[in-house]
């Protein structure tokens, strides 16, 4: 029987920052550039005699992240040289930060943050040429934010939730697109397991992760792999190393022995000035200018609108949809009607969006549709049908309802005649209902709706049926 092991995970997350130019030179920062080696210059190619210049916007972006995390913003910070040789590092060192990061502390999703610092990205190695590799230096020198968490995450699911929330936060702040498919956000797992929750096991780092789902699977795989080794008495085979994630095999593989900080021989970069951030920037003004952040917005939606958490997440992750919903809610005002509107947006509109090209209708048309449905002028089915029309051809719902005969009939005299006709035509169903099967009534309601071409009010139909069958 397998023993109980305690999992400890820490995350290192890199995100390329939204700036016009690279971190230490004037080259364009364009993650969508397809032609290799065009956004380069003597500085980012490390030609002898060139000198780096700090990108002010990149520093501001990292400060904004720190403020959003409610972290400590350093008064003094500096850049260091992290020395190692690899083909994607033209200088044979990377300009990073070691002892004095811009940001320290803070929290997100209840997870403690160790630090957030600023560095330059590496070039991109291309290994698709068979027996040789090429290097594209377009990415070399792009501003890169690195966030390190404390080792306080205890499950793959929790790690995934943190990563997704950080991605969302970076987008809200406008500091990074954080698109993992493009490599704008990259995640590394530091994971260990132990029989004692107070003692860390041997730490393994996992790289090559290109989605949060892959991160969760990589964590789950490592937990199982290490647990099996410990169960079999092979704990010595768990070594401090860097492993890669193989998406096709859904497994990790050993890459290299893990380096320690001493191996990088960090020292302050002599070509870059020291920074005193409180003198350079008005930090409190920057704090006051932060946008409404995801968690604050979630709480506001719960309090102001009373809508479901699943609906809220749809609006939080899609800011355009969220802003549109807020304008709709502002017009509707009534909480119950707002909930109805939200159901049509998240269930029906987003459902349509998965199957065909649609667009958000005009506020006034959608509000008109919701008001018609809430007042019983059209049925729920009619509202869904009209919504499917106005997201393609944005017209007045009232006009569509009148043209398509979808306005509900509330005339009891007219409906009674239709109901009686249906009762007469379905004696077996009537007998079943009278025999105690309440569900048979809905079959009759359906027949009345069909006979009235959808114009009958279903609630009124049920009332008339019950009266006539009493």
Question: Can you describe this structure in just a few lines?
Answer:
This protein has 470 residues and is an alpha+beta fold. It is built from 16 helices and 17 strands. Helix 2 (156-173) packs antiparallel against helix 3.
| Arithmetic mean of pLDDT | 93
Counting DSSP E segments of at least 2 residues, the number of strands comes to: 17
Strand content: 15-25%
Low-confidence regions:
none
Count of alpha/pi helices: 16
> Could you say how many structural domains there are in total?
3
Radius of gyration, rounded? 30 Å
Shape: elongated
The largest sheet is:
10 strands, mixed
Structural class computed from helices and strand pairing? alpha+beta
* Terminal Cα span: 65 Å
The portion of residues assigned to helices is: 40-55%
Task: Set out the fold topology.
Layout: E1 6-16, H1 56-68, E2 72-73, E3 76-77, E4 80-83, E5 93-96, E6 103-104, E7 107-108, E8 111-120, E9 124-126, E10 134-136, E11 143-149, H2 156-173, E12 185-194, E13 204-209, H3 212-231, E14 241-246, E15 251-257, E16 267-268, E17 275-276, H4 277-280, H5 283-288, H6 294-305, H7 309-317, H8 319-332, H9 335-355, H10 363-374, H11 380-390, H12 397-403, H13 412-425, H14 427-434, H15 440-451, H16 458-468
Parallel strand pairs: 13-14
Antiparallel strand pairs: 1-11, 1-12, 2-6, 3-17, 4-5, 4-16, 6-8, 7-8, 8-11, 9-10, 12-13, 14-15
Helix pairs in contact: 2-3, 6-7, 7-8, 8-9, 8-10, 10-11, 13-15, 13-16, 14-15, 15-16
């Amino acid at each position: 029987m397998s023993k109980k092991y305690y999992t400890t995970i820490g995350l290192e997350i890199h995100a390329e920052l939204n700036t016009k130019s690279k971190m230490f030179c004037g080259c364009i920062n364009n993650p969508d550039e397809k032609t290799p080696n065009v956004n380069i210059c003597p500085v980012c190619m490390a030609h002898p005699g060139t000198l780096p210049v700090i990108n002010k916007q990149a520093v501001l972006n990292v400060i904004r992240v720190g403020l959003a995390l409610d972290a400590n913003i350093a008064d003094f910070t500096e850049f260091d040289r992290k020395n190692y040789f690899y083909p994607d590092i033209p200088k044979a060192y990377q300009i990073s930060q070691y002892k004095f990061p811009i940001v320290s502390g803070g929290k997100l999703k209840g997870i403690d943050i160790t630090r957030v610092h600023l560095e330059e990205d590496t070039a991109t190695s291309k290994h698709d040429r068979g027996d040789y590799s090429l290097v594209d230096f377009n990415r070399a020198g792009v501003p890169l934010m690195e966030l390190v968490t404390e080792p306080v995450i205890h499950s793959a699911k929790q790690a995934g939730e943190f990563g997704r929330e950080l991605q969302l936060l970076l987008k809200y702040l406008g500091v990074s697109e954080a698109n993992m498919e493009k490599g704008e956000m990259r995640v590394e797992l530091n994971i260990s397991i132990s029989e004692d929750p107070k003692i860390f096991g041997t730490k393994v780092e996992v790289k090559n992760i290109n989605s949060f789902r892959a991160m969760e699977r990589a964590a789950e795989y490592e937990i199982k792999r290490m647990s099996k080794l410990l169960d079999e008495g092979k704990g010595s085979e768990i070594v401090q190393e860097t492993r890669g994630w193989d998406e096709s095999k859904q497994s990790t593989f050993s890459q290299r022995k893990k380096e320690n900080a001493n191996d990088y021989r960090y020292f302050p970069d002599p070509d870059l000035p020291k920074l005193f951030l409180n003198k350079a920037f008005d930090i409190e003004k920057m704090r006051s200018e932060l946008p409404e952040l995801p968690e604050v917005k979630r709480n506001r939606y719960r309090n102001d609108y009373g809508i479901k958490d699943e609906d809220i997440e749809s609006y939080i992750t899609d800011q355009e949809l969220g802003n549109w919903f807020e304008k709709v809610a502002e017009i509707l005002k009534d909480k119950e009607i707002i909930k109805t509107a939200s159901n049509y947006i998240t269930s029906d509109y987003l459902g349509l969006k998965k199957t065909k090209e649609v667009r958000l209708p005009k506020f006034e048309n959608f509000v008109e549709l919701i008001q018609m449905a809430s007042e019983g002028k059209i049925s729920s089915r009619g509202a869904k049908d009209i919504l499917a029309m106005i997201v393609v051809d944005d017209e007045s719902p009232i006009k569509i309802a009148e043209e398509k005969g979808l306005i509900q009939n509330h005339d009891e005299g007219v409906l009674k005649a239709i109901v009686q006709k249906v009762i007469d035509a379905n004696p077996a169903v009537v007998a079943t209902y009278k025999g105690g099967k309440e569900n048979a009534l809905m079959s009759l309601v359906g027949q009345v709706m069909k006979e009235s071409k959808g114009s009958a009010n279903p609630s009124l139909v049920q009332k008339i049926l019950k009266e006539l069958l009493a």
